[in-house]
Amino acid sequence: MRSQLAIRKYSHNLFVGYAFCIVASIMGAIFLETPTPLLFPLALAFVFQVLVDYEKIYFLLFLSIPISTEVFLTDHLATDLPTEPLIVGLMLIYFLVVLTNPLSIDRKYIKHPLSILILVHVAWVAITTFTSSAIGFSFKFLLAKLWYVVTFFYFTGYLVKDQKKVNLLLWLIAIPLALATTKVIIHHATLEFGFKKINEACPPFFRNHVNYAAILSVFIPFMCYLWKWSVGLKKRILEITLGVLVFGVLTAYTRAAYVALAIIPVAYWIIRLRFVKLAAIIASIGALGILSFLITENKFMELVPTDQTIAHTELSDIVSSTSELKDVSTMERYYRWIAGAQMIAEKPILGFGPGNFYHFYKHYTLNRFSTYVSDNPEKSGIHNYYLMTTLEQGIIGLIIFLLLIYTTIIYGEQVYHQSPTRERRDLVMATILSTIVIDAFLLMNDMIETDKIGSFFFFNIAIIVIIDLINQKEIERSGIHSNDKKDKTS
Asked: Residue 325 and residue 331: Cα distance in Å, rounded?
C-alpha cells in the first residue's frame, strides 16, 4: 500500500523517466544495430509491475500460454516467448516472497501429500542431475523442472485461494486459445484441410500438429466446465468456442489426441463410480502383460520395419498402417524405445541423467529397426515420457513419477466426492480428466517440459490441492458450528 502511494506521488517523474528510457533504448538499438536494447524498457516495466502488483503478471502468464511462440536465440538455444521469461520471473518473485514473508505461505498447502510428492520428484531429478553422464544438459532440465513446479504449483497455491479465481484463470486461457485455434483452422482451410498441410498452419503459436492437438485436448474438459456453469451471452460464446476446439482437434490429425478424447467419457464414469483404484490395477497388469509378451523369446524382434514401412499422406492410411506396423512414425518410436530399453538395462537405478536421451541413445539402437527418418536432425526425444523418465532418472525416478500421477488421480476422486456443490465437483472432474488426457499423451510424447502442457500438469495438481483445502476448512467450520449448537442445547 505504501509503495502504491509513493508511486502516485511521483507519477509524473516516473513517467518522464520511463519515456527517457524508451527513447534511449531506441537510440541504442539504432546505434548498435541490434534490437537487444529494446528489452530494457520491458524489463523495467516488469520490475515496476512487481513492485505494484505481481498478481497481474501471474494473470498475464496464463493469458500468454496459448499464444506463446518458440523463438530460436541461437542454432542450439530456443525459448518460448513471452511465457518462459514470465515463468522464470514469477519463480524468482515466489522465492522473494518466501524469504521476506515466510508466514504468508500456507503450511497446509506445503504439507499436503501431493505437494510432498512433487518435492520428492524434484529432489530425485536433482540427485540424478549430479550423477548424470552429461551434467550440463541435466542441469538445464532441472532448472526447467524447477520453474514449472514453483510457478504453476507453489505460486498458484499462494495466489489462488478460491474457485472464483480458478475460473478467472481458465477464462484467461480460453479466450486466446480460441483465437489461436481459429487462426490455425482458417489457415488450414486455405490449404484445403490437407493431412500433410496441418504443420504449415500451426505456427507461430504451435510448434506442430501434436503440440496444437495436445493443448486443445487438455483444455476441452475445462471448456465444458466453463460452458456448463455460464449463462446468457457467455454460454453462447462458449458453445461456439467449444465447437472450435473440438473441430481443431479433429482436423489436427493426431492419433494421440483421438485416443485421449475417447478415454474422457470412460474416465468420467470410473471417477463417478469410485473405480479409480481398480482401473489403475487393471492398467498396470495390462502394461506388465504387454511388456512381458514382447520380452519373452524376444518377440519384439518381429516388429522389424519392412520395405512397406513408409510415411503416409492420408489419415485413413495412417490408422490402418499403424495397426499393421507399417507407419514410419510408429516404427521410429519402436527404434527409439528399444534403444531406451537397452539404456535402462545399463543404468537401471540412476539412469543417464535428466535431458540426456538424445545425447546417448544412438549408441544403443538396433540397426535392423532403423527407418529413413532415424537420422533425427530435429533432435527430438524418445516419444514416451515414462520410458524417458526411466532411462534418464532410473527406475526409482519412474516409480516416483507414477506415484505422483496415481496419487493425483486418487486424491482427485476423493476431493470430487467430498465437494459439497455440483459446480465445485465439476471443476474437480474437469481437472482430473485434463490430467488423464496429459497422462495419455505421455505414452506417445514427452511434453511435460513444454509451456503448453507442463503448465497444465502442475496447475491441475494445484487445483486439486486448493479445492481439497477449501473442503477441509468447510468441514472444520461445520464441525465447530455443530459443537456450538450442542453446547447451547445442553
From this structure: 7
Q: How many CA atoms lie within 13 A of 460 on its CB side?
A: 30
Query: What are the pLDDT digits (tens) for 125-181?
Result: 999 999 999 999 999 999 999 999 999 999 999 999 999 999 999 999 999 999 999
Which residue, among 77, 318, 68, has the nearest Cα to 211 in the 3D structure? 68
**Which helix H or strand E contains 182, and what residues bound it?**
helix 163-190
- Pairwise CA distance, residues 184 & 198, whole Å: 8
Across-strand partners of 72?
Answer: 78
Q: Tell me how far CA of residue 139 lies from CA of 125, 195, 348, in angstroms.
A: 9, 38, 20
Q: Closest Cα to residue 205, out of 173, 163, 230, 236?
A: 173
Residue 388 CA to residue 391 CA, distance in Å, equals: 5
Q: What is the pTM of this model?
A: 0.87
Instruction: Please identify which residue in the block is written with the cell numbers 482458417.
Output: 186
Q: Which of 96, 85, 87 has its CA nearest to residue 147?
A: 87
- Of residues 154, 211, 225, the one with CA closest to residue 425: 225
* 85, three cell numbers: 521469461
Neighbours of 354 (CB within 10 A): 28
Cβ neighbour number for residue 269 with a 10 Å cutoff? 9
pLDDT for position 113: 96
Q: Specify whether the CB–CB gap between 418 and 469 falls below 8 A.
A: no
CA pair distance 488, 490, nearest whole angstrom: 6
Residue 445 bridge partners (DSSP)? none
Give, in order, the Cα–Cα distances in Å from 45 to each of 7, 14, 39, 54. Answer: 13, 11, 10, 11
478, HSE (Cβ side, Cα atoms, 13 Å): 7
Alpha carbons 142 and 151: distance in angstroms, whole number: 14
Q: How far is CA 146 from CA 131, 133, 172, in A?
A: 18, 20, 24
Q: What backbone phi and psi angles, to 5 degrees, belong to 78?
A: -130, 155
